[in-house]
């Protein structure tokens, strides 16, 4: 389910079935890395959209967590997100990001960080984009299924 | 002091009409195109969409087929990928099932549950369906998988819009 009114309505009727959230982590900056960060957002966006399509009955895809790349407090802000989400009935949190700094910070988070190196899609044909994203998604699906099967 | 000199205000209002004109044209053009387009598109396949699957390649084992179609929402027309599970049933008829779980909409897979290799399986809440799409009682889904109407053209499989199974 996605962050749109119709899906929220569905969620409210079936909340007990939806125990997993995906939060895309999207850095923003305005200097040399600006373009790279935009690519990351594009890529992460496509990827999470596809994941949601596969698992829409069990996953809630939240709008991205957007932060300035040099913001030191983004970890604290994200901690607040996850505490709130865990207090609600969500059991599993997945952060999908291309920003490698979250790999080091994973230990301070309760959710799982899925770090995916970003590809700049702007030079690619649609067909190629689709294949690449689908390939990535295929590799991610078992991670979710395994985690669900654990308990 | 000529009467024909264009004052600033007049100039502005001319320009605005100009821009407005452009905008109107910009809005009308696509509308005209929408109206004309279906006529221009030759292919008389009705609402059926071509899949890359040859009907001779369809056997009794369900296989996943992806096909592309255009979807329009209020703003964009985008190319979407649809999926069907296709196989021949005992009577030799082609069956194309929608992979969308009737519980809450996850994508079902064929034979991925080790204990039930001859069923469709939904990884989200372990919903199951018989090969013909009938939901297995006691699992979360309450209805059978939707069915695509199918047809064959030039050796390839075409599918229509998935519909809830009749008489179920
Ligand atoms: S969405 Fe398939 S069993 Fe719940």
From TrEMBL, chain A:
This is DUF2487 family protein. It holds the Pfam family DUF2487. It comes from the Bacteria. The lineage of its organism: Bacteria, Bacillati, Bacillota, Bacilli, Bacillales.
UniProtKB/TrEMBL annotation, chain B:
The chain crosses the membrane at residues 12-32. The keyword Iron-sulfur applies. Belongs to the Rieske iron-sulfur protein family. Component of the menaquinol:cytochrome c reductase complex. The Rieske protein is a high potential 2Fe-2S protein. This is Menaquinol:cytochrome c reductase iron-sulfur subunit. It comes from Mesobacillus subterraneus. GO terms for molecular function: 2 iron, 2 sulfur cluster binding; metal ion binding; monooxygenase activity; oxidoreductase activity, acting on paired donors, with incorporation or reduction of molecular oxygen. PROSITE patterns: RIESKE (PS51296), TAT (PS51318). The main subunits of the menaquinol:cytochrome c complex are a Rieske-type iron-sulfur protein (QcrA), a cytochrome b (QcrB) and a cytochrome c (QcrC). The keyword Electron transport applies. Residues 86-159 form the Rieske domain. Keywords: 2Fe-2S, Disulfide bond, Electron transport, Iron, Iron-sulfur, Membrane, Metal-binding, Oxidoreductase, Transmembrane, Transmembrane helix, Transport. InterPro entries: Rieske_2Fe-2S (IPR017941), Rieske_2Fe-2S_sf (IPR036922), Rieske_Fe-S_prot (IPR014349), TAT_signal (IPR006311). Gene3D superfamilies: Rieske [2Fe-2S] iron-sulphur domain.
